[in-house]
Amino acid sequence: MTQLHAGVADEGPIVCTTTILVTVAGDPPVPLAAELSYTATDPYAVRLSLGAPSAPSVVWVFARSLPARGLRRPCCRPC
Fold it and tell me: What is this structure's pTM?
């Protein structure tokens, strides 16, 4: 295994658990459990896990620069 820094492979992921509001046109927002995670073994990616209580979670993987850009301005056009 190749390591960029000593101890990187030994560190666990950084995880932030939260609730997001999912909106669909014409319906009220629905709260949904979400988890953002980052690991040093995949330093350019952030994972977003979304899950409803009665369904398996879905994991999205995207560049970590996307949430950073989203702090400064919208990253997509409104629907």
Answer: 0.65
